[in-house]
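Z., the sequence and structure:
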Amino acid sequence: MSDPPLVRGRVVRAVREPVPAARRQTRRARMWLEPGIGVKRWVMLFVVCTLIGAVGFLHFTWTGPLHFVATKWILWVNHFLRPEFMPLYLGGMIIMALALLGALWSIAMLGRSVLRGTGTAPSVAVDLMYTRHTLGRAPRVVALGGGTGLSNLLQGLREITGNTTAVVAISDDGGSSGRLRRSLDMIAPGDLTDCYAALSDSPVMARLMLHRFGRGDGIEGHTFGNLMLATLSEEEGGLGAAMQDIHEVLRIRGHVYPATLYPATLVAQLSDGRVIRGESRFAAEVGQARIQQVRLDPPDLPAMSAIPRALEEAELIVLGPGSLYTSILPALLVPEIAVGIRNSPAPLVYIASLMTEPGETDGLTLEDHVGAIVRHLGRTPDHILVNSAVPSQEVLDRYAAQGAHLLELHCESPDLRERMRSLPLLQEGQARHDPHALAQALLNYTLRRQP
């Protein structure tokens, strides 16, 4: 089950919580000192050159025609500081330190003025430098899926790597996405909107992207992000042509791509022989049957050209978290994506759902989930990441009222048990993965592979 909302498509997804101003300032100060940004070396060179220059100037004044000036300066300082309270050399050190601080301050203010003159805020500049130089050297991660689960994961990944590529399922046909699909014959924008907001370096744009209109003829129920993507799709003749503009406007830390640029319908084959078209109908129509297989219609859609290259260069490939049949598998049903994952040497990690999905995965165990992935993908995940923490009874009761229950983690297969790794990954008071704990756990997989 995707990390909730309980009523899919009707609850606005949560934006990153605002960070207090003092904490932001502390974090940015640390970012200036991160290795590889190219700031500390020039500051040190400036300090060394300033000190050498001070010694040279002292040598010039003491041995040259300005000797009388140096003498008067020393006598004035000696009179001002009173030797009985402070040694003369200590006063010189204090004056030198104050002069150096003043020089560094003037350089900082000059840089601030230059940045503002070019329309770039200093806080934006340090974020860009940090992303390009520090996070740009972090592991290359490709995450596939959709729904709130994928966007939740991306919020954690953006803090540890700037090389995240999100491959997003586009088969949603309910809510705002479904209305725009039917009206404009475009791919579903909803999950893309969530992922763009999660990876955006602009808090204002991230908040606006997720704003859902509660009134207004024709726009009620739509999010601003969905409407923006629909507008760009109309203007550019498709989202593919507007992808670079979207990344630049939203200042995306990494990349977000739809699995394919062509509209597709998700089709489910049930155990009782029935066929359901449209993922929004799954929960209501599956009933007592089980989903045996899902496919896209049309089936042989091409992937975006950047996705196979990202899979080829990936150091880690992640599936989920998210709804098995309506978020994870639809992203794997594009043939080029499945082939790219099967051929990639990068470890494949499946993040197990926390809860079952009402009407879709009722009664399925973790082993059933992995089996469905293997049937559709043709590759077994190298690692299965499961949560070891237990939600509170209040949370469990709330989900039970919606027909969702904790996913059964028991596995009969010894091979699968060896691939499992249990960690406390739960958000406090929620049946939802903690983004930061999840991202750190994934980072450990890539660190173990480094020589």
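The chain has two domains: 33-124, 138-264+299-449. Residues 33-124 form one domain.

Let me know what you think.
H.
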